[in-house]
Amino acid sequence: MAPLESAIPPPRSLLLPVLPLRDVCLFPEASLALNVMRPGSIRALDVAARTGNRLLALTQKDPSVEGGAMHGIGTLADLTEDKPEGEDVRHVELDGHQRARVVSLIGADTLVAEVELLDEGDPGDEWGSAVEALARYMHAHADLRAFLDAQRRSKEPMAWVNLACQPLPITASARQRLLDSGAAERCLKIGRGLDALLRKEQGA
Question: Considering the entire predicted model, what is its pTM?
């Protein structure tokens, strides 16, 4: 008989230190490298290092406001690299795992979030058209293909879609709306968005 604890599902609610992001989002199955300079954010990295190297990557609503309001959905991430990069600067790399909804935020300068993990849902047939649109866009942007090849952490088709959401020339609010969406809706939005971007660039 299997041990009793093996039948207990993992908790859906977690407490995580928050790394506030400016103008970017981290998506599941994607990675992100950035320099961290705010004292509160550096303390959040220290908390993550002491508690399993996991944190919540959460985007600010207004990047110009220090300690301003945060969006309600972010991404549970592994802190895979954290090293000094000059005085009072840390270079970090994050690997995104799963979307999470903020239940509550505590703290002022350094934030800790109680989060509820979110399922992506089944992308169904939508991922196929999204990947086809991504292939058309990458054909015109060889540098994007190199970026995606270097950053991809999963061979699943959704990893391509999630990665493509990060470097595109779209507004931070549009990127957050993609993160707010489940897999099927995100595929539909990114597919339409990529084709629209390509038509605009080609003057069509």
Answer: 0.84
